[in-house]
Design goal:
mainly alpha, elongated
Length: 101
Amino acid sequence: MTAAIAGVLFVTFLGGPIAAQQPPAEPQEEFLPIDQLPPAEQLPAAPLLVTAYAFAWVVVFFYVWTVWRRLGRVEAEMRVLEKRQMHRGDGPSGVNRTGVR
């Protein structure tokens, strides 16, 4: 049963890309600069790739910035709570030192 599932998954995930590959074109004999290649063989997706990576990095930096701000707020709230606890007479560990609560 598991072998059948593994076979189906293999064909599903790897069979399509393998079947979609184009046969290799005639081998290139010499080096050609990219501006001398025909338009079909140039990299038209390069600007899209750079844009995608830039967008991903902007999202990562925005996420880190928001986490940093939220952490700062939590630390400020903890300092306020610690001061409030000190004014009540409790120690920093939350144990009432007078024995009466």
